[in-house]
Structures are given as C-alpha cells and as structure tokens.
Amino acid sequence: MCTNLSKINIPANVRKIGKSAFCGCIQLQDISIPSQITTIEKYTFANCPITSINIPQGIINIEEGVFEGCNQLTTITIPESVISIGYGVFSGCSKLESIKLESKIPPQVGGDIGFYTKKQSGIMNPTYYYVYEGPTRIYVPSTAIGAYKNAEEWKKYAEYYVGY
C-alpha cells in the first residue's frame, strides 16, 4: 500500500494498467489516464479516495473491482469504446451520484457491477436481501435508453436512466 501518492500521470507508452497497481493508495485523488490504455485490470484503483474520473476513449475493458471501495467517488464517465465492465466494479462506492455511459450499445457486464449491497435481517435465522445503493442518475445517450432498459444486465437499473 502506498501512503503518499496523491497524483499519477500514466505515461502515453503504457497500454494497460496492471492488477491492483494503485490499490489502497490512500491519498490518490488525481489520475490522468492516456488514451492508449486499452485495459484497466482488476482492482487497479480499489480503495483510493478519488472523487471523479473520466475514462478516456480507447479503453476497451474495465475489469473486476477496479473502483471497489472508492467511497469518495461521486461521478464517472465511461466512453463509447468500453465494451466490457467487470463484476463489482463499483462495489462500496457509497457516494456515487452519477455515471455517464457514452455508448449506444450497453457494455457487457460480468454480473452485478456493485450497485446492490447484501444485507442481513435477524441473527438466529438470518434472511438476506439486497438494497440498491447505486447512483441516482445513469446518463446514457437518449437514443439508447431502450437498449439499456432491455439489456439483461442493465434492465434492473431502468428507473435511473436519464437521456442526454
């Protein structure tokens, strides 16, 4: 875990950001990602205090848990080039207010992307249920609202879509 890194400007010759590269960098808030990056691997920015991030056009894959535990993250923009978003990518992002998805074709999702939290009721005979704790607004192209509402892994968020 790094404790002093607050800003990172990833060089233009880098093509992917490796697994857990900046995981737990407890001061990291300012991230500059070049457009040559194609993949952000698992847990790259997990548990970092970033508040917002714009993923550049050119990223194709955002893998599992990339922003897991980023409990200061409030906004994120995901470009049209992203075709795959991994499981639990936004787990624990409790302040996430909005996501802007620029693609007219809903990206493939590896299961729940982390908007639901498993809760327990009772101790002796516990029952489990899920509570939506995702953003209140998911911005998608106006012409794509129907596609998102009908896509298997996206239709459960239908009430949160806002066209732009």
What do you see in this structure?
The protein is mainly beta and 164 residues long. It has a single domain (7-163), classed as Ribonuclease Inhibitor (Leucine-rich repeat, LRR (right-handed beta-alpha superhelix), Alpha-Beta Horseshoe). The chain is 4% helix and 28% strand. It has one helix at 145-150, and strands at residues 7-9, 16-17, 30-32, 39-40, 52-54, 61-62, 75-78, 84-85, 98-101, 108-109, 116-121, 127-132, 137-140, 161-163. Strand 11 and strand 12 (127-132) form a beta hairpin.
Describe the protein's topology.
Blueprint: E1 7-9, E2 16-17, E3 30-32, E4 39-40, E5 52-54, E6 61-62, E7 75-78, E8 84-85, E9 98-101, E10 108-109, E11 116-121, E12 127-132, E13 137-140, H1 145-150, E14 161-163
Parallel strand pairs: 1-3, 2-4, 4-6, 5-7, 6-8, 7-9, 8-10, 9-13, 13-14
Antiparallel strand pairs: 11-12
Quaternary organisation of the protein chains: single chain
Largest sheet: 5 strands, parallel
Order the strands across the largest sheet as they lie in space.
2-4-6-8-10
Which ranges are low-confidence, i.e. pLDDT below 50, for 5 or more consecutive residues? none
Q: Work out the helicity level.
A: under 10%
The total count of strands amounts to: 14
Topology order in helix (H) and strand (E) letters: EEEEEEEEEEEEEHE
CATH topology: Leucine-rich repeat, LRR (right-handed beta-alpha superhelix)
Integer count of domains: 1
Total of helices: 1
Instruction: Write down the Rg.
Output: 16 Å
CATH superfamily: Ribonuclease Inhibitor
Which band does the percent of strand residues land in?
A: 25-35%
- What is the global morphology? globular
Q: What is the CATH class?
A: Alpha Beta
Mean pLDDT: 92
Give the name of the CATH architecture.
Alpha-Beta Horseshoe
Which structural class do you get from the secondary structure elements? mainly beta
> What's the N-to-C terminus distance?
39 Å
